[in-house]
Amino acid sequence: MTKYAMAVVPVVGILFDKKAFNPAPNVNEVETVFDVPLEMFLKDENRREQEKEWMGDKYLLHFFDHHSGSKMYTIWAITASILIRAASVVYQRPPAFQERKPTFWNGNPDEAIDT
């Protein structure tokens, strides 16, 4: 849930044949499609954070920079949080940094990951 009460439902899949993947994203919602190693969302490399506050709730926004060829992509905010969570579940370990999620994303800031 975003601070504007928009529900975000992530969908995760396993891609066995990358060449057969032919995405058709909504151009009004998706700027580009690219892939990144999931484990990067657990590392404190190519990551920066920004402290924010909303309605008395202090939290961190995470920004991950990823270079692919000559392009640089930034994955941030709720997308980064979803990928941190996915990586934590897949690799069965917490990130190497403090998350400090806002309560409006899940109602439970800094709740331990169930593994």
UniProtKB/TrEMBL annotation:
<dbReference type="GO" id="GO:0010945">
    <property type="term" value="F:coenzyme A diphosphatase activity"/>
</dbReference>
<protein>
    <submittedName>
        <fullName>NUDIX HYDROLASE</fullName>
    </submittedName>
</protein>
<dbReference type="InterPro" id="IPR045121">
    <property type="entry name" value="CoAse"/>
</dbReference>
<dbReference type="GO" id="GO:0015938">
    <property type="term" value="P:coenzyme A catabolic process"/>
</dbReference>
<keyword id="KW-1133">Transmembrane helix</keyword>
<keyword id="KW-0472">Membrane</keyword>
<keyword id="KW-0812">Transmembrane</keyword>
<keyword id="KW-0378">Hydrolase</keyword>
<feature type="transmembrane region" description="Helical">
    <location>
        <begin position="73"/>
        <end position="91"/>
    </location>
</feature>
